[in-house]
Amino acid sequence: MSEHNPISSNPASGSDAGREAPKRRRFIAGLVTGGLLGGLLATSIGAWSNHQGGPGGWHGGGRWCRTSMSPEAQRERVEFATDWMLNKLNATDAQRAEIKTIVAATLQDLAPVRDEHRQHREAFLAALTQSNVDRAALEDLRRAELQLAETASNRIVTALADVADVLTPEQRAELVKMAERFRH
Known about the structure:
By secondary structure, this protein is mostly helical. The protein has one domain (about 25-55, about 60-180). Helices cover about 75% and strands about 0% of the residues. It has 6 helices and no strands. It has helices spanning about 5-10, 15-50, 70-90, 95-130, 135-165, 170-180.
C-alpha cells in the first residue's frame, strides 16, 4: 500500500487546497448562520411560549409570577420582535409579508404543543404531591415531554429554513452580526 501525501505528490495541489478553503469557510459560515437563525427563532418562540407576565416582564408580573399573556398579547409581542428584526435587515415588503406568514403559521402550529406542555407540567406537579410518588407516571410524563420537544424542534427548524430561504445571503450575514451583539 502506498502512502498518499497530497501536498508532496501533486504540485498543483496547492491550488486545490486554495479552492477548498473558501468552500470550507462558506460551509462553516452557513452552519453558523443557520445556528444563529435557529437561535433567534427558538428564542422568540421560547419567549412567546414561556413568558411570565407582571412587573419586570413586557406586561409586568416578574419572573416568578405564574400568569401568562393572552394569545393576542403573545402574537403582538412576536409580531413586534419580527418587525424589529426585519427593520434592522432592511427587508423588502415582499420579504416582510412572507416571513410574517411563516412566523404566524409556526406560532399557530406550536400552540397545541404549548398547551400540552402546560398540562404535563400540571400533571407532573400533581404527581409529586401525592402521598406515594408514582414513578411510572413521572416517567410517562418525561417521555411525553421529550416527544413534545422533538415536535417543537422539528417545526422550528422548518420555519427557520423557510425564513432563511426568504432572506438574502447579505441579510443572513447581518442577522448573524445582530445575534452576536445580543447574545448573553
